[in-house]
Amino acid sequence: MSEAGKIVEGKPVSASRVTMTHLVQPTEANPLGSVHGGVIMRLVDEVGAVAAIRHARRPVVTAAVDRLSFRSPVSVGNLLILKASVNFVGRTSMEVGVRVEAEDLPTGQVTHTSSAYLVYVALDDQGRPSPVPPLIPETDEDRRRMAEAEFRRRLRLMKLGHEKEGLSRPPQ
């Protein structure tokens, strides 16, 4: 139920899917001609936020970058293709998965370059956390991603609990 006591209808994963492209410019690269990781991180956060906003239809803030991995370098002149969708929804938070691919435009070769999981929190008009609609998986892939995201969420919450207790890591 929403804050007004109305039943909140769920939204399908497909309602949050976003694809964004970005042509890598020389100013975004290091002396070796590879794009700076920070440029990719910014783009990952932007496309992830758009997916979260699409789901919540509210402003969101980035609460965590659960994982960001760089699999291969991206060169100047490559077209970055960033794909994002909501994987899991809590009460006010959402995990968004982002896949980054680089297309070599002259050859058409596409390479998976990065993957990330980010957590966003929806905000109400006063800037406080706001409930978000449930997520409705549509495919077996959506259900798999949701189950894996729920597992990551439990790990994040467990780790956060240990950090609040002053422990640097969970007991062995």
Report on this model:
- There is one protein chain.
- This protein has helices at residues 37-56, 140-164, and strands spanning 11-12, 18-23, 60-70, 79-89, 93-103, 110-122, 135-136.
- It has a single domain, classed as Roll (Thiol Ester Dehydrase, Chain A).
- The protein is of the alpha+beta class and 172 residues long.
- It is built from two helices and seven strands, in the order ββαβββββα.
- The radius of gyration is 18 Å and the shape is globular.
Task: Explain the layout of strands and helices.
Elements: E1 11-12, E2 18-23, H1 37-56, E3 60-70, E4 79-89, E5 93-103, E6 110-122, E7 135-136, H2 140-164
Parallel strand pairs: 1-7
Antiparallel strand pairs: 2-4, 3-6, 4-5, 5-6
- Radius of gyration, taken over Cα atoms and rounded to an integer in Å: 18 Å
- Overall pLDDT score: 91
Side-by-side strand order of the widest sheet:
2-4-5-6-3
Shape: globular
SSE ordering: EEHEEEEEH
Q: How does the major sheet shape up?
A: 5 strands, antiparallel
Structural class: alpha+beta
Proportion of beta-strand residues:
25-35%
**CATH evolutionary superfamily:** Hotdog Thioesterase
Distance between the termini: 39 Å
Number of domains: 1
Low-confidence stretches: none
CATH class value: Alpha Beta
